[in-house]
Amino acid sequence: MLDTSIKLLEGDQNTGHTHQLISSKRVRAIFDDVSDMTLWRWQNDPELGFPKPIFVHRRKYWRESEIIDFIKSRPLELSTPPVGNRHQQTSE
Q1: Torsions phi, psi for 61 (to 5 deg)
Q2: 32: left (phi over 0), alpha (psi -120 to 50) or beta
Q3: Considering the domain boundaries, does residue 11 fall inside one?
Q4: Alpha helices of the chain — where are they, by DSSP H?
Q5: How many domains does the chain have?
Q6: Residues 29-59: pLDDT tens digits?
Q7: Does residue 62 sit within a domain?
Q8: Is 12 contained in some domain?
Q9: Per the confidence metrics, is the pTM higher than 0.85?
């Protein structure tokens, strides 16, 4: 999914369109239609390093090139669930 998203974002390298701004809706779609709340969490997680948006008339936009760089910087393996899952039941 992410490889396809990168190809769609990069488009034709000869046009140089990788610096255009993309909307929150488009960013959410790139990441398999995550919610606004997920996007907010990513933006506010300093360890994740998700790109910061640009505000234009109170609307959020991202630089396409920063989203591409973020995707490329992520490890290819699937992430593991966090340690200490609160939904796990312990046997005593």
Answers
A1: -135, 155
A2: left
A3: no
A4: 2-10, 24-30, 36-43, 64-73
A5: 1
A6: 999 999 999 999 999 999 999 999 999 999 9
A7: yes
A8: no
A9: no
**Measured torsion, CA atoms of residues 39, 41, 44, 49, in degrees rounded to the nearest 10:** -70
User: What one-character DSSP code corresponds to residue 22?
Assistant: E
2/16 Cα distance (integer angstroms) = 21
- Helix-helix angle 64-73:2-10, to 10 degrees: 150
Query: Under a CB-based contact definition with an 8 Å cutoff, are residues 43 and 50 in contact?
Result: yes
Average pLDDT over residues 53-70: 94
Q: Are 5 and 30 in contact (CB under 8 A)?
A: yes
CB 25 within 8 A of CB 65: no
Domain encompassing residue 28: 2-6+18-73
Angle at 52 between CA 51 and CA 55, to 5 degrees: 140
Is 63 contained in some domain?
yes
Say which residue the tokens 């994740």 belong to. 48
